Amino acid sequence: MPDAPGGRRRRRLPLLLLAVLLLASGCAGAGALGAGGKTLVIAIVANPQMNDAIALSDRFERAHPGVNLRFVSLPENQARAKITASTATQGGEFDVVMISNYETPQWAENGWLENLQPYIDSSPGYDAGDFIPSIRDSLSYQGDMYSVPFYGESSFLAYRKDLFAKAGLTMPANPTWRQIAEFAAKLDDKRAGIAGICLRGKPGWGESLAPFTTVVNTFGGRWFDRNWNAQLTSPEFRAAAEFYVNLLREHGEPGAASAGFSECGTRYAQGQAAMWYDATVMAGTNEDPSSSRIVGKSGYVAAPVNKTDSSGWLYTWSLAMPKATEHKQAAWEFMRWMTGKDFVRTVGEEFGWNRVPPGCRRSTYEIPEYLEAAKAYARPTLNGIENADQDSTMTEPVPYPGIQFVGIPEFQDLGTRVSQQLSAAIAGQKTVDEALRQSQEYAETVGQAYRETR
């Protein structure tokens, strides 16, 4: 990741990480010898796509005699804390870790990760050139890849075509947030148990702040100006916060202050929301007959905007190799298997094409079976990922990388604190102004530290 414009990036750990590291003692060594030889310990985030990889892992073991796989699957927040602690201390607990484009460039710069480019270059048929450029670049540092993507996503809006038709409404291909608010008001049906829209309100820098920050961006706001002055009480940031909070309070799901991706996904798939703005990966669940009551009833359009041309985020779950990994070649063979072209086809054939890990490889969008199964959302997903950059999603320059996050180590703590304030406003426990004033104080502390190192 290049130095942030307007200031020199610093290699220091946030207070939250230091606290986590204190809990990292007692980690078992990676690559312990199992009964059949090498045991690779793989830390992943617990979600359906990763569970499919676990279900197929015996195929890798059969193809690689003497290599056993042991998965440590944890909810996102727990996984982040445990993986961060282990990797930062070079504790050697894991051979392969699942991280994102938030961590990858920072950890590569810190020297915590193995450079994967030599492995990629010596792997015929792996074809890193097949990765969508925005995804590949987000996982690179100084031109080399330090993690490889398992799935990628942007954000878009899902809506119930049948409910829109019944109400005589037409969803534009590129809606504005003002239009979405109007639709939510008309489609909100509390007696029928249908919310006008579902949005995340659950605290967490990777929960409510992901969609919320895209709203801030397209409303013309930003976390910091180019000189690292906090901007959370600016008119633009305040307008975005008031809009988001009011939309949820008036036409959002019940209990919105504690609803995250999973909760909104369940609600929408059970027919209890007319619209849902979130990660493009949601579409696979929405269209899965085994978990959804609304298969075939949804349309998918670009992330809503206000002042910008687009507003979708960019995110990818990827696999990385900690520096402390002892069995590097075996770890790479597993990473190559789980992120390769053949794995995509295997998932489609075994579990259904809606379960394919999306948003990483261009070749995925050339598979006829996948295009047929994903015809409602394949193109909007690909467009969102390819168009996700700061130039099109923000109105003003910023000193940090990232669209739905601020790409600095301190954001794990800062973002979580601000998200707690946002959730309190959604719950009606404090006003938006009160929440933003407190949030501004948190951000000013971070900004001051960066100004002092300029």
UniProtKB/TrEMBL annotation:
A Pfam family reported for this protein in Swiss-Prot or TrEMBL: SBP_bac_1
What domain of life is recorded for the organism?
A: Bacteria
Instruction: Cite the InterPro entries for this sequence.
Output: Bact_solute-bd_prot1, SBP
| SUPFAM superfamilies cross-referenced by the UniProt entry | Periplasmic binding protein-like II
Tell me the PANTHER family matching this sequence. Answer: ARABINOSE-BINDING PROTEIN-RELATED (PTHR43649), DIACETYLCHITOBIOSE BINDING PROTEIN DASA (PTHR43649:SF12)
What name has this protein been given in UniProt? Sugar ABC transporter substrate-binding protein
What is the native source organism of this protein?
A: Prauserella muralis
